[in-house]
Amino acid sequence: MNKDPRIIKLTPLFKEKIWGGRNLTHYFKDLPAGPIGECWVISGHPHGDTLVADGPFKGMPLSKVYNENRHLFGNDESESFPLLVKFIDAKYDLSIQVHPDDTYAHKIGEEYGKEEVWLILKAPLSQKIQLGHYAQTKEEFINLVKNNEWDKLLKYAHIEDNYLVPVFPGTLHAILGGTLLLEIQQASDLTYRLYDYDRLDNRGNKRPLHIKEALAVTNVPDTLIRPKSVLNNTLNHRDIFKGNHFTLGVQTVHGTFTYASIPRYYLLIVTSGQGEINHVPLTAGDAFILTTSQQPLTLKGFFNFVLVKRKEKK
Ligand code: ZN
């Protein structure tokens, strides 16, 4: 039983998707029936506000804990909880899509754009992910879209298990069928769908496209991003992704590891193994927020985890 207010454990929220599968049972024993595409593990977003699992804030939505206890979050100035973490199981290909940046989001009255990063838990057999495009000018981009010349437009990148894929706003992307991954992103649900393979949902309808918005926010020409492996011990306990809004490290505990203090707040997501944080037990799939504290925090056991640190606003 967790009585430590510094360690906030959250209850996962599951989402059915037409492209979803059943592979999240590897992490979540009580997976609901149906094609489950997403499991939101840390979120204060109105489209899925995760509830605190135990401890003094038990049952409260994260948005409320964040709003009423800002000191636990290093007095973060953001209006709403700024980050969102989900596991994704793509049985089928996701649509070709793109997300806006903060500047565009503000123009349409939203607080956040969407910078995201993926940790590949299981790569598809093709070892591919759709990332970026070949068009050199907006005109070329628009023509290839209009003429449905997707083979000429879309770029693919090589991925393997334990690869990290940064997806900055304005980057065209799609997760392909057979991929299991952990996504860390700004707390935004702004997705502009450029192409959905003309497929139909179970009612025989196509899902809406947002071509005008996608054309407006996609970077042309593309900026090169290379997915890279995180399987390098020298990277342990160091940030391997440095975004504009958060940094991310992929780490291992073998025995004991202590944080002397938590200066702001960290998100900790367990990807394999088991152990405890200050006697609060943890296992693969668990997600925690470690809140501001001057006291040490001790991790014990044998597990791998992702640690996300929120960046200060400048
Ligand atoms: Zn995306």
Could you tell me the mean pLDDT? 93
- Helix count? 5
Which of globular, elongated, flat, extended, rod-shaped describes the shape? globular
**Class of secondary structure makeup:** mainly beta
CATH topology value of the largest domain: Jelly Rolls
Q: What is the CATH-assigned architecture of the largest domain?
A: Sandwich
Name the CATH homologous superfamily of the largest domain.
Jelly Rolls
Return the string of H and E elements: EEEEEEHEEHEEHHEEEEEHEEEEEEE
Description:
By secondary structure, the chain is mainly beta. It folds into 2 domains: 7-229, Jelly Rolls; 238-310, Jelly Rolls (Sandwich), CATH 2.60.120. It contains 5 helices and 22 strands. The protein has helices spanning 62-68, 102-107, 138-146, 150-153, 211-217; strands at residues 7-11, 13-21, 36-42, 44-45, 48-49, 51-52, 83-90, 96-98, 116-122, 128-133, 154-158, 163-167, 173-174, 179-186, 192-195, 228-229, 241-242, 246-259, 266-277, 280-283, 287-290, 297-310. Strands 1, 6, 17, 18, 19, 20, 21 and 22 form an 8-stranded antiparallel β-sheet that branches. It is globular, with a radius of gyration of 19 Å. Bound molecules: zinc ion (ZN). Zinc ion binds at residues 97, 99, 116, 167, 173.
